[in-house]
Amino acid sequence: MTGFSSALMCTWEYILIDFFLGYQNGGPAGLIYGFLFTWFGTLSVFLAIGELSSIYPTAGGQYHWVGVLAPPSSRKFLSYITGWLTASGWVAAFAVTGFATSSLIQSIASIASPDYNPTGWQGTFIFWAILLLATLVNTVFSSVLPYLEVLILVFHILGFVATMLPLTYLAEHNSASEVFTTFANGGGWYTTGLAVMIGLNGNAGAFIGTDGAVHMSEEVQGAKKTVARSMVASTMINGFLAFAMLLAVLFTKVDYNSIASAQYPFILIVIQGTQSTAAGLTIGAVVCVMVFCSCVAALASASRVMWSMARDQGLPASSYLCRINARTTIPLTAIFTTLAIAMALGLINIGSTVVFDDFMSLLVEALFLSYLVALVLLLIGRISGRVGPKGEIQWGPWRLPGFIGLLNNVFGCLYLIVICFFSFWPTSVPVTPSNMNFSVLVTGAVIIFSTVYYFLSAGKVFEGPLMEVEVQQTEIGP
Description:
Strand content: under 5%
Radius of gyration: 22 Å
Helix content: over 70%
Order of helices and strands: HHHHHHHHHHHHHHEHHHHHHE
Number of helices: 20
Largest sheet: 2 strands, parallel
Shape: globular
Number of strands: 2
Structural class: mainly alpha
Distance between the termini: 28 Å
């Protein structure tokens, strides 16, 4: 499971991909201190999520826990909305990783062949091919996924070493004072401190995917301990690797003005630092392969969340989406539905990459809001005594003891509030249609649509997450 979580997170790879967002808003020092904040914040969140997964290891994850922890008067609705946020966030994760893979391929091609001019329609076709390949791995080759997880983890670490060595030994380096004391406000914000807070989004996004292991809980042996341990281990491993990579890139002396307009500046940083185009293209290819592995893992998690919500009658056409293939025991209908939605989103990229990016920002907002609802309810349960040795809900075998767990729970909630708040801000001012962050509209649209559907239809059949004895009755179809 650690390999699965690490493949989903790809933290050092996404630190490179999202590098310029934090560099523009925060500079080298802002990136470093912002990374440490998001690393410890993410660890805090998933220590608490690990406690919940140890109590109820279920594919539904956040919405299942909300359904158990929320007050009876609001339990059904809060569970339902959290389920929609989780499902939409994971569908967006599948699309984001597929798009990142396809756009990396185009960027590598344009650097290798300067005459090549990437277009939106070409990117969409490559995007579709990536999604189809990820679906093939999740269906035809689903039986070998556990073995692929090990190989992915090995490649994840070897790719890190292969990227670090040339930057460390071949590049000219900046001084420590330039790296640790230089802040920047390239977005034109009112204060540098505000710029640093907005730049946190790039670092926070690099840790997305940690809860993927939760949504595979019902296919894992010893899930009450294994899932929590894999999330914490992958957060620690990826955090160390990403922090080292961030330092290596920031210490590399390059002309940032010459690479600011590039879609993925890290490739040009390697090329300038090592004076080798081949090195930059090779490292770009390594990152591209790892992001594709993240796409494969994202589809596995997204389809399980969709299947789980359909099992509880929380989605349109739930009777079909909840079916499990009798031969492979995987949710084929949910997998193909996730594929179809992601491919449809790819059509937007032909007309406007800005609109497509805003749809993809749903990944951060939706998942972080789902974490926040679950952790706030866990905190209330802790304080009230409802969760605990003498409470209605007993702790699982994996938990943080006493006051330490309470403090961690509080910090995790505060961290999520900060990230959710600043994730809706644009990256620069003055705000124009081209740099406006419309993610609040996208997230709001998901909430509004799901709420309308709840009162028109779902509220009549959705009763919250099924308990273990009821799960055994889930329909198995062809």
